[in-house]
Amino acid sequence: MYLLWLRVAAVLYAAGGVAVFPAVLFARERWRKATFYLAGLAFFFHFVSVVEMLAAAHSWLPVGVRDAESLLALLIAAAFFLVWWLYKAVSLGIFALPVTFFIIFIPALGVDRYIFPSAGVRISWLVAHIVALLAAYTALGFSVLASLLYLVQERRIKSGSIKTKLSSTGPSTFDWLPPLDNLERIAHATLLFGFPCMTVGLIIGVVLAQDSALGAAYFRDPKVIASFIMWAVYVLLLFVRNTAGLRGRRAAYLSGAVLLVMLAVWAANVFSSVHRYGAP
To answer: Is the pLDDT higher at 146 or at 164?
Structure first.
């Protein structure tokens, strides 16, 4: 029965992890309340699951890897609620709630590793995994491009080249550049689009890993580790851009940092023995 409660908690953690982003990034009070109720219910069902799990094992300590993962996730969620209660720091939820979900997602699949019912189903999940991550990479690339063009346009404005162009009749090389506000909106909108794509891609990748013979060893692969690091940096970028109000040059530098992490993820294929493109 504890597995059922753990699955309910996983769904609620996922919903809370979605709600916390507009609550933090856009200061939406309604989403803040939704985060509290969803995460609170998730913690309750998670706690019930852990208690039943330990009672079934007749032990005060977890007896398996997945039991330990469930207990670890419960402690992370408890720490988040404690910090929220003491310091009203709901912003930590954009890290704590998704991480908690990622940790209990595998134990919630079942005692044994998940096996796809057919090869066709596995291929469909693999296609969705690749498409979601490529969409995230594309969105991030557009964001970096818009940020770079922002720097170019900003430099033109500060140097007075636009005013010079208005007083002359000759065409300028960069007259096609959009206004600064439009470039900023493009950079931010593509970041917001790419984040759920990356999250979904990683979740599907976790499911695919369970169907492999490597099991948990799959997550020691350098590309997998780099992918999760990139996800964390992506979250940090969104958080800093919105809470600190970063725009323009500094936002462009942050986007460039995420791009470097993305390139590191691609480069990790060279050192990966199980996740290399073209690998069986």
So the answer is: 146
Model pLDDT, residue 280:
43
Of 269, 257, 125, 98, give the one whose Cα is nearest residue 191. Answer: 257
Nearest to 69 by CA among 108, 112, 32: 108
Query: Has residue 22 got a pLDDT over 60?
Result: yes
- Alpha-carbon torsion 233, 238, 244, 248, what sign? positive
Helical residues (DSSP H) of 58-118, grouped into ranges:
65-87, 93-109
Question: 180 phi and psi, to 5 degrees?
Answer: -60, -40
Phi and psi, residue 48, nearest 5° = -60, -40
Q: What gap in Å lies between CA 218 and CA 94, rounded to an integer?
A: 25
- Please determine, for residue 32, whether its predicted confidence score (pLDDT) is greater than 60: yes
**Structure-token match 């791009």, residue found:** 259
The DSSP symbol for 58 reads T
Could you state, in order of their start, the residue ranges of all structural domains in the chain?
A: 1-112, 117-280
CA 215 – CA 155 distance, rounded (Å):
51
First to last CA, the chain: 37
Place of tokens 């991030």: 140
Q: H helices of the chain, where?
A: 2-25, 29-57, 65-87, 93-109, 119-159, 161-166, 180-210, 222-243, 249-267
| DSSP-derived secondary structure letter, 178 | P
Instruction: Check if the beta carbon of residue 230 is closer than 8 Å to that of residue 259.
Output: no
Contacts of 265 (CB under 8 A, 6+ apart): 223, 226, 227, 230
Return the structure tokens found at 154. 């900003």
Instruction: Look up residue 107 and give its amino acid.
Output: P
Q: What distance in Å separates the CA atoms of residue 213 and residue 190, rounded to the nearest whole number?
A: 36
Chain center to CA of 141: 16
